[in-house]
Structures are given as C-alpha cells and as structure tokens.
Here is the input.
Amino acid sequence: MTLLLCHTPVMARGGQDPFVTPLSVEQMRNKQVVIETTEGMVVIDLLPDAAPNHVGLIMGHVADGGLDGTSFHGMVPRGIIQGGDPFSKDPDRRDEYGRGGLGLVATEPSDERHTAGTVSAVGVPGDPNSDGTQFLITVVAQPGLDRHHTIWGRVVEGLPVVTRISETAVDADGKAIERVEILAATIRDWAPPPPPPFTTETVDELAAYRAVLETDAGPITIELFVDLAPAHARNFLRLADAGVYDGMAFHRVAPGFVVQTGFIPSRDAPLTEEQRAVVDTLAPEFSDTPHVKGIVSMARGDDEASASTSFFIVVGDATELDGVYTAFGRVTAGMEAVDQIAAAPTEGETPTTRIPLHRVTLERD
Here is the structure.
C-alpha cells in the first residue's frame, strides 16, 4: 500500500512553540465534528483524553471555518483518505496539496489503535512538532500506522462515505483527480447515532405500510404481518427503503409452488456500503399461518436463523412450509402479475429469460 501522508511543510510555525489548547479536557469531552462533504456526512467523536492538544487545535480550526472548502486530496482505495490541508481550498495550488497546515502541534502518543474509522494527525517523519490540521481517516484497520500518528478521533457515522471517498480516482502521485470537498464542518455536543429505519415505530405504525413490487408483469402489492413477524416486517421495510431490492430478478420459478426473488447476486448492480450495512440475518418467527396462494415468506438455508433478503410468494398450497418458514406478508393486489411470473418458461426452476424486479416502493396509509 502506497501512502500519501507526509510532505515537507511550507506552512510550519518556524520555531514557535507548539500549540497548547486553552481548553480543559473536561471542556472537550463529549464533542463531535460533523463534516458535510460532497459525498455525504461524516461524524467524528473527538478523543481529548488521548490527544488534548490535537483536539483543541481541531476544535478551534473548525470553529474558524478552517476546514470549510478544503478537499480530500489523497486516497488509498478502501484504505485511507487524507484531508485538512488549507492549500486545498485553492484548486490552482494542487501541486502543493499535502504541504499546508503542518508544524502546529507536537505529537501526543497514546495506546489508541488505527482501527476502521480512526482519525489521526499527519506530520513530517522524524519531526515530533510537525502535526497540524491535516488528518487521515482509515477505511479499514491500519496497524502499521500505530504509534506513528497521533489519534484524535473516530468516525461514528458515515464510514461508507469515507469508503466512497477512498475510491476517488488518483494520479500517479496518489492525489485526487476530482475534488471531494468539505462543504462545512461544525462542532456539536455528542449525539447518539440515529436508530436504523423502522426500529422505533410501533406495530400500529408499521401496519400502515405496504410494499409494491414493480415488475414487467405489473405491480404486486404486499401487506405485512407486523403482528405475527415484526422483526421480519421491519427488516423487509428497511431493505426496501434502502433500495436493496431494486434491480433484482425473480431467480426461481417453481410452478404451482413459489416464485422467489431477493437474491443479492441477481442484482444488476453491487450493493452500496450503506445498503450492505442494513443486510442482516434473522431469527425465525414461525406462526400457524398456512402457506396458501399469495402468502409471502422468507427463504433461508438449513439454519433456521439464516433468513436475510431472499423471499418467495406462494402460488399454490404448500402446507409443507407451514411452521418451517416465516410468513411475513400476503399479496393484496397484483396476483395476476404473480401468476404471469409463475408461468414463465424455465430450465428446471431457473427462468430462461431474466424476470426483473425493478424496485420495491413503500406506500403508507
């Protein structure tokens, strides 16, 4: 891995004493930096107990608008991103990116480690007083950086955004070809990350939702059994809301039995980082609901707790599935579209031509 981290500074303090924060550690505790970028939002928990002077410097710099308009100028794909150089506010100074904002604060060693989402200072190798406003964020663990860079924060929201930024095309010197800007950075009191969608709604609130599968055969409307399978209903709503099902296909057609979709490899594009984050497995929620025509149920492997994204619609009585698979909904409109899909030509149970599931949209009463 080639790292674009340290350059000879041209903006050093030149013999001045390193920055020492006027704030107490207590005053800096429970603070976050919220960074709005052209790729999305990143929230960083500050670590004043590990690096009080670095945190104090960053808090003051952010308050002065010092990060606003800068760009992330260095990337290692799915490894590291680097930003915070004041020179990067000026596109005409691209050749100098990586040299600004250094020589401001002395290193602050700690036992913190470079796990995924770690934010640490950039300095000049061999100069313990050369850290400053430049920083790097790790996409994955980087143990080789431990004790070489002062760690002053950790990403608590937006690691998929960091990952996307790391995939920005770079030139032969590892500098970003296109600008990925910090639009605004602010300091706020610590706030917990928002709960995932569809985790806090009541059963009555969830019951107001219905899902519409958009297919070439027509729309298929599904009501959810939020009282019988609440975890599965919440999971399905979350996946649909995130667009996980968009661009999939009906990959299995078993006439008189089921049609099945939701298989991630059938998707016409890879999942984004945000979409991957909402994919999980589920414990079963078996009920006495009979698997008759129109019932929607979760597919799974041999493990009863392996249901994830794939689901099927029953097109004929399938009593052998009762109490073995989790029924979480039923078709209320569009069964004729389901029947048309069930009549598609197959080789075995695999359709001979792709049967697209264009998207799943959510409607609310």
The two ends are 52 Å apart (CA to CA). Residues 25-189 form a domain with the Cyclophilin fold (CATH 2.40.100.10). Residues 52-63 form the longest helix (12 residues). The mean pLDDT is 94.
